[in-house]
Amino acid sequence: MEPNTRYKVEEVPFDKLEKVGIQRDFISKMEKKDLTDFLNGFRSDKLYTVNARINGEDYRIPAKIRLHTEGDELKVRVHPIQRLHIPDSYMGHTFTKEEKGALLNDKNLGKVIELKGMNGTKEKYYLGIDPKTNRLIPFKQKHIRVADQIKGATLTATQKEQLESGQKVRIDGMTGKNDKKFSAVLQISPGTRSISFSDFKSEASQTQNQSESQKQKRGKGPKIK
Asked: pTM of the predicted model, to two decimals?
């Protein structure tokens, strides 16, 4: 069953895709989530090999692709790998030194900012770096809804607010494989359009370390002569 998306498979401009070197059957090889994202106008997660002409020479280079509308025409936009570079301004927003540092070091701005779209309308976005192409990736905040529970852990109102604002938040009490409890730092990832997990810690080992630390403290009481 075809997913409910912005564009339909029959609307995809296969002739334009073939011009950049992508065969028509690539659609049938896509995973369901990848196909849904592609038909909604998001960049492909996968890198495709496309035709490129650089300094008068023909090359085949890796790139992400996405659908976009220009006027009444549906086109294909190609996003090849590029050198990591943060411009002084992007979509109407001028970066501070701290913001550039966050993007370069964390690949994530870590907050929500207002950006101006092609139609001139300002909206709130998350902003990050695509790890596969080194390109800036804007993602509208309205497309993210943080659940009340993540992997079995109930989030507080403050934790949800911090996540929705783009901040890093450590969540304890999550349940992983084999019902093992763990904690991790969560953050909205514009590049994957989802919540990323990092800095994993096993809560079993944390509890054991705390228990051993308490035993050591109890063992350091005053000596009786």
From this structure: 0.79
